[in-house]
Design a protein that fits this description.
Number of domains: 1
Low-confidence stretches: 4-20
Radius of gyration: 23 Å
Order of helices and strands: HEEEEEEEEEHEEE
Largest sheet: 5 strands, antiparallel
Structural class: mainly beta
Shape: elongated
Mean pLDDT: 83
Length: 200
């Protein structure tokens, strides 16, 4: 009997313990980025690399979040040739889409916002373009080889005063998220092959 008891206890110790992740209400909105496509073409003076990047927002907190997804989203891209090197390219971009004119002051959030329940996700895509130098690297260009890309997205473009007013007005629908969100840097490479076609 004692041998059986020891065998059961040993089995329990060897089985991994799986626990649900605790909600993170200090940093409830998590952003991840993934390169899902690329286009490489020859420009007049530099080659152009266009990366299609999928952005995935996830609510890892314990309450509903209202996340802006409208036409006035701004994002910053930062590219460098290695983890310890300074950033070679830092660009602030605006995302264009076909959203209708935005109305922000309504009693309820409109189509410019997505409601994320705890654990829910929202995905969108952006195109990040960067010049690839053919010889010596110039301003806002990179060289061939391995690089990292970090994307930081805005979550609000109006005044802080309006944000606080809407947070209070919409609190029954969720927490209006207004802080920038940064994705972890991702790796990409620029090969040595020449672009197959000219940029159009």
């Amino acid at each position: 009997m004692k041998t059986l008891y020891l065998a059961v206890m040993l089995l329990l110790l060897l089985v991994p313990c799986t626990r649900a992740a605790e909600p993170d209400d200090q940093h409830p909105l998590q952003l991840t980025a993934e390169v899902v496509g690329s286009r490489y073409c020859a420009g007049d003076r530099v080659n152009i690399l266009q990366l299609t990047v999928r952005l995935r927002y996830q609510n890892v907190g314990s309450q509903k979040l209202l996340v802006y997804r409208g036409k006035n989203l701004f994002y910053q891209t930062r590219i460098r040739g290695g983890a310890e090197k300074p950033y070679e390219v830092v660009v602030t971009n605006s995302r264009y889409n076909d959203a209708e004119a935005e109305t922000l002051g309504e009693r309820k959030p409109g189509s410019a916002f997505v409601t994320l329940r705890p654990g829910a996700t929202y995905e969108t895509e952006i195109v990040v373009g960067v010049g690839v130098a053919r010889g010596a690297r110039g301003a806002n260009t990179i060289l061939q080889g391995e690089h990292t890309l970090q994307v930081i997205t805005s979550s609000w473009y109006e005044s802080r005063k309006l944000a606080e007013e809407l947070r209070e007005r919409w609190r029954g629908a969720g927490l209006l998220w207004i802080d920038p969100v940064a994705a972890r840097p991702l790796n990409f490479a620029v090969g040595s092959e020449a672009p197959a076609a000219a940029c159009r």
